[in-house]
Amino acid sequence: MPKCQLAIVVREQDYMKRLADYVRNSPYAEQWQIVAFSSSAACVRYVDEGYRLDMIAGQPSLLAEMSEHAALRTIPCVALVMNPGQSGEEMELRQYQPLPELLQRLSDFYKRSQLHMVKAVSREESSKAVAVYSTAGGAGKTSLALHLAQAAGARGLQVFYLNLELWNASADWLGTAEGEAASSAAGLSDMLYRLKTEPDQAPVWLSEHRGRHPLLKGDFLAPAANAEDRLTLGCEDGGALLDAVKRCGLYDLIVIDMDASLGDLETGIFDEVEHVLWVVDERADNEGKRQLKLQYGRQRWGERFERLSRKFLYIRNRSLAGSAVHDQERRWASVHLPEAAEWRELAKPRLLSSPAYRAAVDKLFLSLYGEGEYSRANG
């Protein structure tokens, strides 16, 4: 079994020599190969020349100098400090402590970091995606997408809410204060720029700039800075965006809030998801539009659209008591979304403000993924 390459990055050469000598003459020699550097530039140059490092332990100022180097971002780092709290690293160890204790703690941290990487790869491979769609705006698509993401997050799943509407109004559901905060954060426009200029680094950028909403219990991206960025998205862009979220290795479920259009972007997303939840508002007379949209899809994409249509699951929103499904051509969800009495007089309803609606979405989530799915995701 190959030894793990441990980089020690400190300014004191005596310290490096003492640590390397101790490892060489201890049982840790079977586990660690020590590579020592007295400057951040030397460590960066070592990696650029193609040599492998499995972990870096260094002084905070030297780690900070290396933090912008892309090749080092995926390597687990431990800050060697004089006193706790002196660095921004997740893991800190006192630099001057008995060497057996220092090396044992470094070994423990390395094992934990490897376990995290295994879980991240597992999530990337098993990450699921669901799109929420409707014939026209106002059918209840965003309310369903946000509540569905929250239902997953409440069960401990790592969930990402991706809004691809031309006019993103999700901030209304999340509250004015959160919306104002999100508008100043890095968002969809920045992510699209990274996908075009540094596609390999886009997952890293996303993991560092994603927003987090406590009520949603999930992550999100702020809306695009301007409508043109959203309007120019095509089939390949949508696929690349969804792929970057999956490659983060952070998420069990990705909930995509779609626009009401039907074009290359939408069909590209439909290709990549397991389910397309098509929201039908019983109080809106849009059956004719829905039929025209399906007819257009068949004419433009032929057999591909027929294949995509098998992913469509129609969901009745604002369902009336005693309403029934009359056509058998479409696949309907067994769960109906009720009209939320709490929202009737509100210009901007809030997420989770209707217990009946929340319970219905919770039931819908279980019908899609079941107890076993989210248990495996947390396992």
Could you write a compact summary of the structure shown?
The protein is of the alpha/beta class and 379 residues long.
Characterization of this structure:
46% of the residues lie in helices and 16% in strands. It is an alpha/beta fold. The protein folds into 2 domains: 4-121, Rossmann fold; 127-378, P-loop containing nucleotide triphosphate hydrolases (Rossmann fold), CATH 3.40.50. The strands form 2 sheets. It has a 7-stranded mixed β-sheet, with helices on both faces. A 5-stranded parallel β-sheet has the order 2-1-3-4-5. A hairpin with a 4-residue loop joins strand 8 (211-213) and strand 9 (218-220). The radius of gyration is 25 Å and the shape is elongated. The chain starts with a strand and ends with a helix.
What kind of oligomer do you see?
single chain
CATH topology term of the largest domain: Rossmann fold
Largest sheet: 7 strands, mixed
Helical residues, percent: 40-55%
pLDDT < 50 runs, ≥5 residues: 118-122, 176-184, 321-325, 372-379
> Per CATH, which architecture of the largest domain?
3-Layer(aba) Sandwich
Q: In terms of structural class, how would the helical and strand content be classed?
A: alpha/beta
Question: How many domains, as an integer?
Answer: 2
Question: Mind telling me the CATH class of the largest domain?
Answer: Alpha Beta
Over all CA atoms, what is the radius of gyration? 25 Å
N-end to C-end Cα span: 28 Å
